[in-house]
Automatic annotation (TrEMBL):
A GO cellular component annotation in the UniProt record: plasma membrane
Transmembrane segments: 6-32, 44-68, 74-94, 115-142, 154-174, 194-211
Protein name from the UniProt record: Lysine transporter LysE
UniProt-listed PANTHER family: ARGININE EXPORTER PROTEIN ARGO (PTHR30086), LYSE FAMILY TRANSLOCATOR (PTHR30086:SF17)
Length: 213
């Protein structure tokens, strides 16, 4: 398969996915709260729970897209709905308000008591969020076409899974240092707004591709 075709699918997918990771959602705030209150290990366990739930949705989205790629009308309709969903996300990010991210730090005794629950906290947070299934379906609708082999689709899926896991663990390590919390609190809202504009641009490019073929 031509490298250019592979990159045409991979670059927008990887960009949109990473921007979405930068944009705080329910999983992000649970990870932030757990890490700041209960420590590094609790945060890492939560990160693994979130990543595995995302992995399940990634596989479901991958196999779902595989079944409809031969139906051009249905496939283009899903791409259209996906671009509208990205616009919806970008709207809320651009209009987001600044909020308090860190509060109610727990004691060591409380941390140990809740340690075993952190994996399931992360897992349930992500698996019970219907927006995750919509998001990953959108991601694969961006990247998929009849020229991209199943092998490369699996690469896309693996990339997104490990991107979620590595990013979440990175956040845990950032939050474990008190000085970093100051910067996260200071710049998080600006990051949300910038992320919103980038996702809006990606959505517009998808719409152009749909209607200007």
């Amino acid at each position: 398969m031509d490298l250019e075709i592979f990159l045409q699918g991979f670059i927008p997918l990887a960009t949109a996915h990473f921007i979405a990771l930068l944009s705080p959602g329910a999983d992000f705030f649970i990870l932030l709260s757990t890490s700041s209150k209960q420590g590094k290990l609790a945060g890492i366990l939560t990160a693994f729970g979130i990543a595995i739930s995302n992995g399940i949705y990634i596989l479901l989205a991958l196999f779902g897209i595989m079944f409809i790629t031969n139906n051009q009308f249905l496939f283009e309709s899903i791409k259209l709905l996906g671009s509208l969903y990205l616009i919806y996300i970008s709207y809320h990010l651009i209009n987001s308000k600044k909020r308090e991210l860190f509060k109610n730090i727990q004691t060591e005794k409380q941390r140990k008591k809740e340690l075993l629950n952190n994996f399931f906290k992360g897992f349930l947070s992500a698996i019970l969020n219907p927006k995750n299934s919509i998001f990953y379906f959108t991601m694969f609708s961006i990247s998929s076409n009849e020229h991209i082999s199943l092998q490369y689709q699996y690469f896309y899926a693996s990339w997104m899974f490990f991107a979620v896991l590595i990013w979440d663990i990175f956040i845990v390590y950032l939050v474990s240092h008190k000085k970093n919390r100051i910067y996260i609190q200071k710049y998080s809202n600006k990051i949300e707004k910038i992320s919103g504009f980038i996702l809006l641009l990606i959505a517009i490019l998808i719409l152009i591709d749909i209607f200007c073929k």
